[in-house]
């Protein structure tokens, strides 16, 4: 009886210590989750916002999304990005990070144990940054001129857009992704503009796929990843948005 | 023959950003002066996309775009760090680097190259940029990063010699010490850093170069 009592006590101690260990781990996890409070100030058609959505999904980071009305910016946006008052803004434990490529690098550095966006070699990193910077300098502004322009102005913009996309196609080469075997910074920087291709094509009356088949094939490959397809709105929704914008601007 | 080469152009502040970073890290390099507008075949080969300087060539591999070169230098030669270790502080530094670079270029060049109404507009925009730097970008330390210079200071580094020359050529002084005390103090501290002091284009030579550019730009506007 005494022996079985000891055995009972012993096994209770074991059960108790296992319970305590689980409780501590759960507490720690809860504390970590509480520590990792992530908010994204976003605007649904923004390619720059989409970049951050993709990165957060790739890293498996839980976050709260706040949809901004850019015609009526929230006090939170103005407080978090007083210099530019633009989205996206990532707010990590109350601290704001602005500018999409800076946010991507921040996410990559803080959540470095999963799905790296940048390689470790400085030379390859500089190449990735170069092409992400190229995309930033060209696609948005040229795309805007394609959609909003008329006549000669529009033709010039169309030509420039195709030239840029062909240059990017050249950089992609025979790789699956710009990042190599897996997606990287350049893929995340560029793929959000794929959802705008339909708008560029319809406004400009041309086919991007006809001119840049390899690039469109790359984009479709990216869209097979849920992290990307769930982060990008439907191209027809984007086009409706563009039509509304053109009406407002009288174009 | 060094394994690091820099293709630059003597009046370019973008060239100097790279020179300062290399010198602060104690990296030996060969400097190749590009003879604009006659760009060398090598430059066009190293930077076929933008065809611009600066281009850093390390062990035969080119890196283009000054800010990308700065990050490459920081990662390849980590001694004497020019960026903060903390990820958030680093993101803040990158924000101001981008601001200094994007706003520094077009707005200030517009002030320098334009006349009349266009210049009035450019002056207004330049004052706004200076105000943002003064009130939000600089903070209260000696340099943007703290007590020693970093990549943000290097990116703003064209204000002391280049912008001062532009103001002299245009004949309009925008960066007054009374209006921008922090910026003025920062500029004085920046110019005193030995690597910076010893690596600036000659004031008279730069002034003459800018005068030629402005005269040509104004003449074009009058046509």
UniProtKB/TrEMBL annotation, chain A:
Belongs to the GST superfamily. Residues 121-249 form the GST C-terminal domain. CDD domains: GST_C_Tau, GST_N_Tau. This is glutathione transferase. Its EC number is 2.5.1.18. The keyword Metal-binding does not apply. InterPro entries: Glutathione-S-Trfase_C-like, Glutathione-S-Trfase_C_sf, Glutathione_S-Trfase, Glutathione_S-Trfase_N, GST_C, GST_C_Tau, Omega/Tau-like, Thioredoxin-like_sf. It comes from the Eukaryota. Transmembrane segments: none annotated. It is an enzyme of class 2 (transferase). It catalyses: RX + glutathione = an S-substituted glutathione + a halide anion + H(+). One of its GO terms (biological process) is glutathione metabolic process. Residues 36-115 form the GST N-terminal domain.
TrEMBL record, chain B:
Residues 86-213 form the GST C-terminal domain. It is found in: Cytoplasm, Cytosol. One of its GO terms (molecular function) is glutathione transferase activity. One of its GO terms (cellular component) is cytoplasm. GO terms for biological process: glutathione metabolic process. InterPro entries: DUF7962, Glutathione-S-Trfase_C-like, Glutathione-S-Trfase_C_sf, Glutathione_S-Trfase, Glutathione_S-Trfase_N, GST_C_Tau, Omega/Tau-like, Thioredoxin-like_sf. The keyword Cytoplasm applies. Pfam families: DUF7962, GST_N. It catalyses: RX + glutathione = an S-substituted glutathione + a halide anion + H(+). This is Glutathione S-transferase. Is involved in the conjugation of reduced glutathione to a wide number of exogenous and endogenous hydrophobic electrophiles. SUPFAM superfamilies: GST C-terminal domain-like, Thioredoxin-like. Belongs to the GST superfamily. HSP26 family.
């Amino acid at each position: 009886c005494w022996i079985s009592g000891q055995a009972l006590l012993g096994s209770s101690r074991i059960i108790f210590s296992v319970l305590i260990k689980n409780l501590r781990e759960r507490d720690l996890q809860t504390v970590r989750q509480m520590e990792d409070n992530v908010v994204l100030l976003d605007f649904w058609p923004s390619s720059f916002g989409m970049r951050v959505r993709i990165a957060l999904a790739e890293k498996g980071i839980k976050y709260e999304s706040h949809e901004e009305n850019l015609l009526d910016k929230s006090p939170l946006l103005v407080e978090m990005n007083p210099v530019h008052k633009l989205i996206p803004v990532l707010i990590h434990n109350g601290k704001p990070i602005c500018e999409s490529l800076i946010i991507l690098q921040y996410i990559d550095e803080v959540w470095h144990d999963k799905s790296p966006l940048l390689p470790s070699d400085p030379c390859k990193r500089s190449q990735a940054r170069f092409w992400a910077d190229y995309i930033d300098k060209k696609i948005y502004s040229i795309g805007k001129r394609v959609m909003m322009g008329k006549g000669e102005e529009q033709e010039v913009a169309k030509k420039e857009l195709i030239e840029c996309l062909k240059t990017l196609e050249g950089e992609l080469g025979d790789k699956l992704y710009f990042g190599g075997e897996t997606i990287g910074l350049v893929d995340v920087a560029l793929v959000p503009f794929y959802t705008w291709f339909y708008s560029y094509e319809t406004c400009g009356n041309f086919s991007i796929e006809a001119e840049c088949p390899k690039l469109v094939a790359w984009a479709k490959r990216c869209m097979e990843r849920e992290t990307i397809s769930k982060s990008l709105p439907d191209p027809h929704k984007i086009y409706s948005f563009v039509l509304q914008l053109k009406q407002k601007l009288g174009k | 023959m060094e394994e690091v080469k820099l293709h630059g152009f003597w009046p370019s502040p973008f060239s100097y950003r790279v020179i300062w970073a290399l010198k602060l890290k104690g990296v030996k390099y060969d400097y190749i002066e590009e003879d604009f507008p006659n760009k060398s075949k090598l430059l066009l080969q190293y930077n076929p996309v933008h065809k611009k300087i600066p281009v850093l060539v390390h062990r035969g591999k080119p890196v283009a775009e000054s800010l990308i070169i700065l990050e490459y230098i920081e990662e390849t030669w980590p001694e004497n760090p020019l960026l903060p270790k903390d990820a958030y502080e680093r993101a803040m530094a990158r924000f101001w680097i981008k601001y200094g670079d994007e706003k520094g270029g077009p707005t200030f060049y517009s002030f320098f190259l334009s006349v009349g109404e266009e210049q009035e507009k450019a002056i207004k925009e330049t004052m706004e940029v200076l105000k943002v730097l003064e009130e939000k970008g600089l903070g209260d330390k000696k340099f943007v990063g703290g007590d020693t210079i970093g990549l943000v200071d290097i990116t703003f580094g064209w204000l002391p010699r280049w912008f001062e020359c532009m103001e002299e050529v245009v004949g309009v002084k925008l960066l007054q010490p009374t209006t921008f005390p922090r910026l003025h103090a920062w500029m004085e501290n920046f110019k005193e850093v030995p690597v910076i002091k010893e690596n600036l284009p000659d004031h008279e030579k730069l002034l003459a170069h800018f005068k030629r550019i402005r005269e040509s730009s104004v003449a074009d506007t009058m046509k």
